[in-house]
Amino acid sequence: MQIKKILNNNAIITHNSKHQEMIVIGKAIAYGKHPNETVDETKIYKVFMPASRGDRKLILDMINEIPVQFFQIAKQIVDKAQMDSDIKLTDSVFIALTDHISSSVDRIKSGLSLTNQFLWEIRSYYPKEYRIGQWAIRLVNEDCQVQLTDDEAGFIALHIISGELGDRLDEFHEVINFVKKVTSIVTYQLSVEIDRDSLDYNRFVTHLKFFWQYMMDQSHKRVIGDLSDDMLAVIKGKKVAAYECAMKVKAFIQQNYDYTLTNEDLLYMTIHIARITDKT
What we know:
This protein is of the alpha+beta class. It folds into 3 domains: about 45 residues, Roll (Transcription Regulation, Sacy, Chain A), CATH 2.30.24.10; about 100 residues, PRD domain (PTS-regulatory domain, PRD, Orthogonal Bundle), CATH 1.10.1790.10; about 110 residues, PRD domain (PTS-regulatory domain, PRD, Orthogonal Bundle). It has a 4-stranded antiparallel β-sheet, covered by helices on one side. A hairpin with a 2-residue loop joins β1 and β2. The radius of gyration is 24 Å and the shape is elongated. One of its GO terms (biological process) is regulation of DNA-templated transcription. This is PRD domain-containing protein.
C-alpha cells in the first residue's frame, strides 16, 4: 500500500487499484515515512472509503481530534461483535463508536457520567448486544485506566443495535414497545410472573423481534402448508391456555398493526408462550 498523503503519524491517504481514495488508520503507520513509500499493512486498524465529501470531512476531523487509541478500541469491539455474535456492522458504527468512547473517557475523567434511560430495555431485550457492551467497557477500563459503568455498556450496545437496524434506529423504540405489550398480554392473560432472565424468555423476545421485522416487511409473503395446520391443531389441543393467549396476541396485533397472524404465526407464538409459562 503506497502513501499518497500523510495526515499524521497514524493516518494516511492512498488509492486502490480503481483509483478510489482510501483513508487508512494504524498506530505509527506513517512514522518516519514519506509520500510514495509503502506502509506496514499489519499495523492497519481501519480503511475508510468515503462515499461523500461530508463523510470525508467527518473522518478527517476525527483523525485530527481523536487519539488513535480509540480507533483501535473501536476496531476490537466491532471485531468482537462480528466474529463472536455474527453481527454485521457498517463503517458508520465504527465512526460513532470511536467518537462515543473517546467522549465517554473524557467525561469520566472529568467526573461526569450519563444515565442510560434505556438500560433495562437494552439488557432485557438485546442481551447479545448488551454482553458486547459489557465486554467493551472492560476493555476500555483496562486500556484507559477508567471506570465506565453499565450505563456505558448500554450506550455501546445501542450503537451496535443502530448498526444492525441501519437507518431505522427509531424501530428500536417501536420494537421495545411491541415486546413489552405482548409480554404484558401474556402475564395478564395467564396471571403469571415471567422469569425475564430465563433462556426461554430470551428466545421468546428474539422470536418477537424477528416477527416484528417480518411483519413490517410487506414484501415477503409466506405460503402456509397443511403441515402447519395439522401441527397447530395438535398444539391447540395440548396447550389450550397458551393457544388462547396467542389468540389474544393475534387480536392485539390485528387491531394495532393491521396484520393478521397466520396459522404458522399462531403455532410459533403458542409454542413460545407455553415455554415461558409452563415453568412459572
